[in-house]
Write a structure and sequence with these properties.
Elements lengths: L6 E5 L4 H13 L4 E6 L19 E5 L5 H10 L4 E4 L6 H6 L1 H23 L7 E7 L23 H20 L3 E6 L1 E3 L8 H10 L4 E4 L5 E6 H14 L5 E4 L4 E3 H16 L10 E4 L14 H7 L7 H14 L1 H7 L3 H10 L2
Parallel strand pairs: 1-2, 1-4, 2-3, 4-5, 5-6, 6-10, 7-9, 8-12
Antiparallel strand pairs: 9-11
Helix pairs in contact: 1-7, 2-4, 4-5, 6-8, 8-10
The structure holds nicotinamide-adenine-dinucleotide (NAD) and thymidine-5'-diphosphate (TYD).
The site of nicotinamide-adenine-dinucleotide has 31 residues, from helix 1, helix 4, strand 5 and strand 7.
């Protein structure tokens, strides 16, 4: 896709991954107009984008993808040429308490965007693209061996992954049925700056700073494949521009860690950072009740995006974790702001029953 003046809509751009994608596109493509549509739920935060908010090629819109009237009008007013769709409810634990919210945003919200894009561009697909950002969790769980490839059958286990699987299916179906130029990528667990402290790594960084227990679910022998968020944003840039229509790309870190090993590494790095004696933070580890339906292991085979688009992670896990820890120390105000108010109620409900 080689149009040099393009109007791109990024949804969920005030969230964790979205904010890094918005920043990359605004800085790398001054000739594009980048629109960020976000409902600013608990996970959305315009503080994440302070450094680019004044750029001439960037515009923020406060709006909800589940609001069909708003979305239809919005698309008729701004004739978007590309959509990079990240807006979603994204936390597995919240999907267990409130699955309907996940169906609304992740399935219906995605369908609203698909329908609005279809109406706008029917019979005129040249140079256009609808890109859905998805997760490896749609594939379900792995045993001790094997990797998820692009042809692994979908087998989601949580309401979150079921809602993402469903939206992937709709995106794919719009490609097959209406010939819409769609592309999907399924990525492993991200970590890095601006990550909301409900997910494992930022939650544990925050708890170590506050000297609070580190709640490890079950026996801690669950495995995830971790990728630095800016490397995910780089992959999204490549897939958006050079990926094939109707294709799926798996994105992963080549970086599997058992939760308990990762937590111990994080404790050691945090002890150093805080000038604590080694072993102090590890004492905060507390084994708690397991997550229901907890997937044992995720691991991605990212050879397709590597071979076809030349992508690979640029940051090692040690570098990425160190950068992440530094960011949370340099941005304590951000951390304080997002962990006040409603976060406290969430925390009580999730961890203190
Ligand atoms: P996040 O929860 O940090 O951000 C989601 C953003 O979407 C927030 O800014 C929120 O305000 C916005 N949003 C939520 N509901 C909305 C609605 N109805 N209308 C408009 N905006 C709404 O999520 P994230 O971790 O940045 O994930 C972004 C995307 O990437 C999601 O689609 C997620 O499924 C996918 N993904 C995440 C990971 C990960 O490790 N975090 C891995 C693979 C894929
Ligand atoms: P999380 O960051 O929620 O990502 P996901 O569930 O999408 O993989 O969790 C990562 C792993 O850490 C997962 O196996 C669940 C586990 N975990 C804990 O042990 N304790 C916690 O408090 C959280 C939030 C997660």
């Amino acid at each position: 896709m080689s149009d040099n003046s393009r109007t791109i809509l990024i949804t969920g751009g005030a969230g964790f991954i979205g904010s890094h994608v918005v920043r990359l596109f605004v800085n790398a493509y001054p000739e594009y107009q980048i629109f960020n549509l976000d409902a600013l739920t608990y996970a959305g935060n315009l503080e994440n984008l302070k450094d680019i908010e004044g750029k001439p090629n960037y515009t923020f819109f406060h709006g909800d993808i589940t609001d069909i009237e708003f979305i239809n009008t919005f698309f008729r007013e701004h004739r978007f040429e590309g959509i990079i769709h990240l807006a979603a409810e994204s936390h597995v634990d919240r999907s267990i308490t409130d699955p309907l919210a996940f169906a609304r945003t992740n399935i219906l919200g995605t369908m609203n965007l698909l329908n609005a894009f279809k109406e706008l561009w029917q019979n005129n697909w040249e140079g256009k693209r609808f890109y859905h950002i998805s997760t490896d969790e749609v594939y379900g769980t792995l045993g001790e061996d094997g990797l998820f490839t692009e042809t692994t059958p979908y087998d989601p286990n949580s309401p979150y992954s079921a809602s993402k699987a469903s939206s992937d299916h709709f995106v794919r179906a719009y490609g097959e049925t209406y010939g819409m130029p769609v592309v999907i990528s399924n990525c492993s667990n991200n970590y890095g700056p601006n990550h909301f402290p409900e997910k494992l790594i930022p939650l544990f960084i925050n708890n170590i700073i506050e000297d609070k227990p580190l709640p490890v679910y079950g026996d801690g022998n669950y495995t995830r494949d971790w990728l630095y968020v800016i490397d995910h944003a780089r992959a999204i840039d490549l897939v958006f521009h050079d990926g094939g229509n109707g294709e799926t790309y798996n994105i992963g870190g080549f970086n599997e860690w058992k939760n308990i090993d990762l937590v111990k590494l994080l404790c050691r790095l945090m002890d150093k950072k805080l000038g604590r004696e080694e072993g102090v933070s590890e004492k905060l580890i507390t084994y708690v009740k397991d997550r229901p339906g907890h997937d044992l292991r995720y691991a991605i085979d990212a050879s397709k995006i590597n071979k076809e688009l030349g992508w690979k992670p640029s940051v090692t896990f040690e570098e990425g974790l160190a950068k992440t820890i530094d960011w949370y120390f340099d941005n304590q105000e951000w951390l304080k702001n997002v962990t006040s108010g409603a976060y406290q109620d969430y925390y009580k409900l999730q961890y203190q029953d």
